Each structure stands twice: as structure tokens, then as C-alpha cells.
Amino acid sequence: MNSEQCNKLNYFKYKINQLAAHIGAVDYAFFFDFKEPENWLGNNWLNSFKSRKSLIFSSAKLELLFCRSRSSMTKLDPDLVKSLNKDHHIWLLEKKLKQQQIKQNLLKEFSYSKQISVSFNLHNFDYLTGGISFFYEGDCHLTDIQRLELINDFITEIESLGAQIAYSRLLISPFEDYQILKPSTISIIQHLSQGCSRSKLSDIHYMSARGVDYHIEKAKLLLEAKNTSHLIHIAHRTMLIE
Q: At CA 71, angle to CA 41 and CA 43, rounded to 5?
């Protein structure tokens, strides 16, 4: 990340910090994901989730919590699934499963009492959704209903910041973060969008024209693109290219 991107990241973190303070939260984690992750990840959803890296954390403490929580996961957390399928989700309302008990203990260890996740639409990014998890400390006087009301009051600002972060490409596409597409395939799509010919792509990537075509056809099949132009269009809408 260059200095300009670092400055942008610090600006967006500052703006989200302000929002978090308004709704009584002390930390947050911001991310992009698929609208229907199970369709893209299938049986690999758990391993893919545990290995993903492209998130924005408000603090090193919260990042460590995420790291320890994901490393302890042996099966998909039901709260995780619900958080991606609902506009708002309050975590750990039920603590029957061992997985949830482990997460509850981790929250207490890190001095958090509550986690609320928000999912929101990303304009012009059809396949993706924005997400942010807010974390509250134990001495927060707000009820769950009050927290949700405050979040709803600021949902327009949250969506606006999400769109700006998506356009700035400070986070990589879930296709890349979950390693669904290989870096070489993504690079070929990016150069293809810049008007590079098959011959030029072969030179850049040190592979034959047939090898270039293989990567393009594989991407078209995965993204259900009708042709190369459609592939580039979808790549824009999935944050694969600017």
C-alpha cells in the first residue's frame, strides 16, 4: 500500500470511528463479502473464511480477537451465517453450541460485551455486499433496541462510506481474498481491460496464447460471462479491476 492509499485508509478509519462513537461502539471490523457466499465457496466456506485477510480493523486488539476466534473454528458459526443473510444481527443471543461459548469467552477476555453486524448494499457492485461488525464494552448503557435504532439512524452514512471504500480499492475483491481466482488470472483480466492483445498478454505473463486463453475462459465460466467484454464488465462490478 502506497502513501496515498495509506492516507485514504486513515481517513476512512477516522470517519468510521466517528460513526462508531455515535452509536456507542468502541471498535469495528469492516469488510466486503459475497451476497451469497455459499454459492461461491460451497464446502470450502469455513477454510476460506479462516484464511481471508482483507478487512479493516479499528484496533490491533480487535484484529487479535478475530485471529483467535477464526483459529478456534472447527465448523461454520451459525452467527456468522446469520450475519451475512440479515441486515442486522446481534451475535450470541443463543449460546448452546460449544463454538458460541468459545466466542463468548473470547469477547469477555477482550473486554467486549456485545457484537452487532450490519450488512448493506454496495451500489454498482452487484455480486457483493458491505459489512461492518460493531463491538461494545460492558459498561455501555444502551439496550439492544437502542443500539439498532442508532445504527439505522446512520445507515445512509455507513452505505456511503462503504461505496467510497469499494471504489478506492483499499480492500481486495472477495474473489481474490478467498482465492477463488488465481493471481495470474486476475492479472490477465486487469491487463485485458486495459486493451492488451493476446500477444501482449503472452509476453507479460510469460505464457503461450493458449495459456492466456485458458485463464480467460476459466474466468468467463466462473463469472458466467458471455464474452470478453461481459467478463470485463463483471470484473468491474466485483472489484477485480478499477
A: 20
pLDDT tens-digit series, residues 134-181? 999 987 788 999 999 999 999 999 999 999 999 998 999 999 999 889
| Residue type at position 88 | H
Residue 3 cell numbers, joined: 502513501
Answer yes or no: are the C-beta atoms of 159 and 130 closer than 8 Å: yes
Q: What is the largest CA-CA distance in the chain?
A: 64
* Distance of alpha carbon 101 from the chain centroid: 25
Segment 3-58, tens digit of pLDDT: 888 999 999 999 999 999 999 999 999 999 998 887 888 777 778 888 888 999 99
Q: Exposed e or buried b for every residue in 29-59, given b needs 16+ CB within 10 A?
A: bbbbbbbebeebbeeebbebbeebeebbbbb
Q: Which domains does the chain have, with CATH numbers?
A: 3-177 (3.30.450.80), 183-237 (1.10.10.10)
Which are the contacts of 2, defined by CB distance < 8 A and separation ≥ 6? none
CA dihedral 119, 123, 128, 131 (to 10 degrees): -20
The Cα-based distances of 42 to 38, 45, 178, 185 in angstroms read: 5, 6, 12, 21
Report d(CA 5, CA 158) in Å as an integer: 20
